[in-house]
Amino acid sequence: MEIVPLTEGEKSGAEAVRAGVRLAHVVGALGEAPSRGRHVWVGLADHSLAAGEAPDLLADVYAAAGAPWVADGYHPHVVEVPAAGPLPELFFAPGFGREQVHASAPARPEAPAMTESATIRQADPGDIELLLDIVGAIGEHQAGPPVWSGLPVPGREELRDDWVELLEDETAVILLAERGGDSLGYAAIHPGERAGVAHLPVAGTRPDVRGSGLGVALVEHVLHRAHLAGYETVELDWRSTNLLASRFWPGRGFRPTHLRLRRDIQPTA
Questions:
Q1: What is the pLDDT averaged over residues 231-235?
Q2: Are 33 and 69 in contact (CB under 8 A)?
Q3: pLDDT at residue 216, as a whole number
Q4: pTM to 2 decimals?
Q5: CA distance 251 to 256
Q6: How confident is the model over 169-188, as pLDDT tens digits?
Q7: 39, 204, 232, 236: which sits with the fewest CB atoms below 10 Å from its CB?
Q8: d(CA 119, CA 260)
Q9: Are 257 and 102 in contact (CB under 8 A)?
């Protein structure tokens, strides 16, 4: 058995082979982004370990793949793995930690119960100011403990263009919860990457109404609207360190499908 360099398209890494048969492999795409700097992204299909092979072999292959990445200054390494099975544990061994949870839930055929605490309705372009009153709450929450996202909290005007575009998107469903002319919460879905799947990119409530049941009502409404729009499944993701999200979404029937793991290499002086 030998571990050799591997190139797949624009991705680079390493593989372990014996008599021409692949036993394990890890490849990643080199990239650069404001939130990660120079980083390597290893997708769900970018790693493997053959049945019956020792788990340590994957760590050995990652070490061989990562050596040139680190030498070239690509220090954050991101790996996506299925939530079920041994792979998360195998990547924890060489120092990865869980950063993001991806999950899904079935759309709801049942009509949601009415809520007396607020009106939940479809938002339209004329609701832009009401939405801007509330949509910044997520960034503010994730800037604090224990997420400490390190990302700048966008201001009202920075958010405006994206929300104007989403409100004008005829394929999107945006629900707004309000009471007495004040916005209390929101949720949005739009078509996902796969047929029959809707993506829920954002949802939230005003901090002072958390725990009132309004968030639960919003989710039930958006899952039902997904069913009415012909979707079978709704998918979303959240930061593992966002404790509110980590407790809330599983309680609403969302089950993890895959995880995003991350390791930050400390550069040598």
A1: 98
A2: no
A3: 95
A4: 0.92
A5: 12
A6: 999 999 999 999 999 999 99
A7: 232
A8: 36
A9: yes
The model's pLDDT over 11-50, given as tens digits with 9 standing for 90+, comes to: 999 999 999 999 999 999 999 998 889 999 999 999 999 9
Report yes or no: 58 and 43 within 8 Å, Cβ to Cβ: no
Q: d(Cα 84, Cα 106) in Å, to the nearest integer?
A: 18
Q: What is the CA radius of gyration of the chain?
A: 21
For 52, which DSSP code? T
From CA 139, how far away is CA 136, in angstroms rounded?
6
Confidence of residue 269 (pLDDT cuts 50, 70, 90): low
CA 258 to centroid of chain Cα atoms: 9
How far apart CA 249 and CA 215 sit, in angstroms, is 10
Virtual torsion, Cα 204, 206, 209, 212, nearest 10 deg = -10
Q: How many CB atoms lie within 10 A of CB 255?
A: 12
Contact present, 110 and 224 (Cβ < 8 Å): yes
Any residues with CB less than 8 A from the CB of 17 and at least 6 apart, and which? Answer: 1, 2, 4, 23
Cβ-contact 267, 77 below 8 angstroms: no
| Residue 203 · residue 190 · CB < 8 Å | no
Question: How far is residue 191 from each of residues 107, 173, 197, 236, measured CA to CA in Å?
Answer: 13, 10, 7, 12
